[in-house]
Amino acid sequence: MKLVLKCLTILWGGLIYCVTVFSAELGGDYTSLLCPNALDVPERPVVDAVLGTDDIHLAADEADLVEEGISTLTGNAEITRNTQQVTADYIQFDQPNDTADLDGNVNYWDETVFLNSTEAFLQFDNGIGEFENANYTLFDSRGRGSAEKLVLDIGTRTEMDRVKYTTCDPDDNFWKFSASKIALDHENNWGTARNVVLKIKNIPVFYSPYMSFPLSNERKTGFLAPGYGNTNRHGFELRTPFYWNISPNMDATFTPRLLTDSGVMAMGEFRYLFSNAAGEINLEYLPSDNERNDDDRNSIGFKHHQKFFDTGNLFLTYNRVSDRFYFEDFGSQLSTTSTRYLDRRADLSYSGQNWNMITRVQDYQTVDRSIAVTSRPYKRLPQFLFNYTSPRNYGSINYGLGTEVVNFSRGDNVAFTDNVNGIRLNLQPHVSFPMRTTATYLEPKLGLDYAHYQLNDSATFSDNTPDRLLPVFSLDGGIFLERETTLFNTPFIQTLEPRIFYLYVPNENQDDLPVFDTGLLTNSFDTLFRENRFSGGDRFGDANQITFAVTSHLINQNTGHDLGSISLGQILYFQDRKVSLPDEGPRDEDSSAFIAAFNTKVFKHWNLGGDAIIDPNIGNSTEKLTARATYNPAPGKVLNLAYRVRRDSTDIEQSDISFHWPLSQNWSAVGRWNYAVPEGRSLEIFGGIEYESCCWGIRAIARRFLTDIDGDFETGVFLQIELKGLAGIGKKTVDFLEQQIPGYQREF
Fold this sequence. Notes:
Elements lengths: L6 E6 L2 E6 L7 H7 L21 E4 L2 E3 L5 E12 L2 E11 L4 E11 L3 E11 L4 E11 L4 E11 L3 E10 L8 E11 L4 E11 L2 E12 L7 E2 L3 E5 L3 E5 L2 E6 L2 E10 L3 E11 L3 E13 L5 E14 L3 E10 L4 H5 L3 H4 L3 E12 L2 E12 L12 E11 L8 E12 L12 E11 L2 E2 L3 E16 L11 E13 L1 E7 L2 E16 L13 E2 L13 E2 L7 E14 L5 E12 L20 E7 L5 E10 L5 E14 L2 E10 L5 E11 L4 E10 L4 E12 L3 E11 L6 E11 L4 E3 L3 H7 L8
Antiparallel strand pairs: 1-2, 1-14, 3-5, 4-5, 5-6, 6-7, 7-8, 8-9, 9-10, 10-11, 11-12, 12-13, 13-14, 15-18, 16-17, 16-46, 17-19, 18-19, 19-20, 20-21, 21-22, 22-23, 23-24, 24-25, 25-26, 26-27, 27-28, 28-30, 29-30, 30-31, 31-33, 32-33, 33-36, 34-35, 36-37, 37-38, 38-39, 39-40, 40-41, 41-42, ...
């Protein structure tokens, strides 16, 4: 018998609701801490005999045994068969029919449940038992309760009359659940309940005349638990999602969302999953928004991914919002409200041995109001990419080819005169000769970069068919060294990995080429070894430079774990860099910024990491600095500290603290503070508490975060109550905390 139930569909007042009952979420040491009291289940009698399958063992103080007849057991009577065991004051065992009548203090055990009743009838051959005035305990979920009558057919069905259920300890009956009848169909994994009443502290809070529910993780049509909250932007919020289980591989959720200051929004999600395809559609619609001049507000999001011919893939996505303020008004966090573009794309890709190809059509909706028209991205109508690389063989010639053809379009009616549309062709063939020994490697590489344009009668450029042809030479080499060392009385291997990367690309004036999708790459340790300092194909930087870098790892000899690394590098320039983007001049520094990156787990319970970019050309000024630390001394305890600085067009300096920390066995604190240092203001801050006992928990969060470029904030308070073994009540906050607090682990 397994009374682990999931989603219950409730018919009440012509509507269907869905709550979760009898769910077994807790386990292990964590359950023991929250539920220190034992289940108060008597120990099973010890059987001294060795029993085979279907063997029956009888024991009693007094016994009248009749072979092939009815035997009577009196006083501490006991029957054991397979995983079933039963005791009673009095037992009549009918051997020909393989049945037993039990009377007085009947105790029944199997692998999932313990039952105590006044009298019972068991049919051992088919696993049927009938119990009167039964008290039951479910081992997996710590559920317990009573039933005036319980009929058990192992693996097939269970029926109970006048049922009570809770997961609370006897001295903490915070909530309890009762029904006039429950019927469980174990073969089809479905059940029903009638006249259901939920009481909290003996106060009735819910009633339904009928419920149906699955006995496994299968889905069922019905209303999901409602969510609610309160914010300064929308006032009180209430969501009542309805789940439609269309088929085993298809479902939909419809959610009316009441916003007292804006109106009622309709939200919908449709998902599908096939053997070679999956996707989802999300729709939102708010008619006559009271906060936006009674305008209709809406959004749509669509994703589809499909595989074909083993290595072929089709990806489709379409996203749109009705207006530029949509995410500012309805986004749930800073990362959403700061969305700049919405992607609309169709990718068709296929790969073979050593080659791959992609055909793409792509467009964007610009959402960020601060982006100028001249800075908005181009459409790709279409884009074709083909790449081939020969199998990598050391000591022989390797070769490859990168190809791109793309038609860039921003429309002919864009409101500025220097709008340029056209086709770009990029070809990048290369050959290399990699060499490697046990401790060294060297790879010379020679390539070509060719770009050709077909512009649409552009007034900006005198030549509508400009091109570019450049040779590209690089030499990449390194040495791998190691030594044994001891740290904290532990043997380690420390590596030392110097690396040299030389790059030569001659200068060619590229001012006659348009800029469709190209920008200067952000400095990082990886950019020290790139052949082109620009992203995209509209510019290829001239270079005569050498990179010196070194990386060191610390490896535990006992476990083989890499406990950390540090990397340092810098580029030395032998000539000025003349190729640049429009409105930018040539660069004449003798060296690049000094770049360092590190990560370590040397200190117990700490994970430390970060990187620094320090530019000696401007007084050793810090161009970029990030530092992060995570302290995780035990499951459920996490503290994250982060600090970052960027001195470029964005000029960012922020600190970030987040944590989840138990205050006692039952109480925990959660919070995050993201602070902008130059502006002297908080970008996002929230704090809250969690309480969890053996049978119920509560989570309350107060939150304030920046929503738009004008400096407006949204403030809200959200509440979630969980009755262990019943549905949560209130706005779901756990997903939000998992996104905002790295290392956060759900507890209820």
